[in-house]
Amino acid sequence: MTEERLNELLDDARRTWPLPPEPDYQAMWERIDREAFAGMRRTTRTPSWRIFSIGLAAALMMGIGLGRFSMKEAPAPTVAAVPTDTAATASGAYDRAASELLGRTVALLTSLPSQGRSVAAGERFSNQATELLTSTRLLLDSPAASDARFKDLLEDL
Amino acid sequence: MTHAALAAEASTVPDERFLIARAQRGDRDAARSLYDAHSRRVHRLVFRLCGGDEEMAQDLTQDTFIRVFDKLSSFRGESAFATWVHRIAVTVTLNGLRKERRLKRGADDLDVANDLPAPSDNVDPDLRARLRAAIEALPPGSRASVILHDIEGYTHAEIGEMLGIAEGTSKARLFDARNRLKKALAAYRNE
């Protein structure tokens, strides 16, 4: 048999080769769907650092909220226990500073997911975090830390 | 028709890349659309590669798509999606055939092709049948070369990519397969 004759036969085969009977594509898909996507359902995603930071921020906000709520519910001091004006002013100032610090910390952590990964954003975040850490250490050494609840919160920070 | 044309035909599905991206994220509707777009050609190729065994062709077509969706996250679009799917189909089919040992006949079966009933006066149908029998009797790799190149119209480069062999190896395999076919048909009257 010559090469030309074989080419003719193969050309004929290309045109006339039997086509498969039409299968039940839907039934075939059902098995594919069951087996291919069962694996996908098993896969779990590891929470990213962003999701973790949002969770941390939410926990902090809840802590602050509870702290403020419990402070408001503290019994009113009796006349005999009212401190001098100077002491009250100083204590109030520390409390305000601590609350402000916690608020700024929450704001920083909440803004973390939208910061992006640019060098500038990273540097800005780092500076703010350093400043907040310094303030936290100062407050830990201040009369604000005499309140056990505040102290715990500051130590957590 | 070359495979490039076939791939272009398959790519007429709107936004195939978008469908692939969605399927990579686990979207089953997108996966179903990809299956609908490619299953007929894959099934036909598998059917031809496994010698017309319809039940086996259906099983291997399903195995192909299970593998496709399992590996879809590794598809980076470096080749056409159709080429990538067909490569998996060929691999799955050849592995399936080896596993089932349905094609262990090999070169010895060319004798079986020669033992077909004597050709009748109606030359063309008999010769056609003998050619098909001879192709189906080829060893799996050689048969895949003939079917992919001479029947399905893939280029040697595409076959090399599908079978994981060099383009030159694909040409050599086809040359060898065609020689076997010529020998198998040589006994035929006037051929």
Number of strands of chain A: 0
Chain pair forming the biggest interface: A-B, 27 and 40 residues
The structural class of chain B is: mainly alpha
Which spans of chain A have pLDDT < 50 for at least 5 consecutive residues?
A: 42-46
SS field, number of helical segments of chain A: 6
* General form of chain B: elongated
Element string of chain A (H = helix, E = strand): HHHHHH
What kind of oligomer do you see?
heterodimer
Number of helices of chain B: 10
State Rg of chain B: 18 Å
pLDDT averaged over residues of chain B: 80
Helix content of chain B: over 70%
Share of helical residues of chain A: over 70%
User: What's the total count of β strands of chain B?
Assistant: 0
Question: CATH topology of the largest domain in chain B, what is it called?
Answer: Rna Polymerase Sigma Factor, Chain: A
Structure description:
The complex is a heterodimer of chains A (157) and B (191). Chain A is built from six helices and no strands. Chain A is mostly helical. Chain B is mainly α. Chain B is built from ten helices and no strands. Chain B has helices at residues 3-10, 16-24, 28-49, 54-71, 81-100, 109-114, 123-136, 140-151, 156-163, 167-186. Mean pLDDT of chain B is 80; it is low at 105-123. Classes of the chains: A mainly alpha (157), B mainly alpha (191). The interface between A and B is medium-sized, with 27 and 40 residues.
Short description, anyone?
Chain A is mainly α.
What key phrases describe this protein's structure?
heterodimer; A: 157 residues; mainly alpha; 73% helix; B: 191 residues; Rna Polymerase Sigma Factor, Chain: A; Arc Repressor Mutant, subunit A; 2 domains; 10 helices; elongated
Produce the secondary structure layout.
The complex is a heterodimer of chains A (157) and B (191).
Chain A (H helix, E strand, L loop, with lengths): L2 H14 L8 H18 L6 H24 L12 H27 L7 H22 L7 H9 L1
Helix pairs in contact in A: 3-4, 4-5
Chain B lengths: L2 H8 L5 H9 L3 H22 L4 H18 L9 H20 L8 H6 L8 H14 L3 H12 L4 H8 L3 H20 L5
Helix pairs in contact in B: 2-3, 3-4, 3-5, 4-5, 5-9, 7-10, 8-10, 9-10
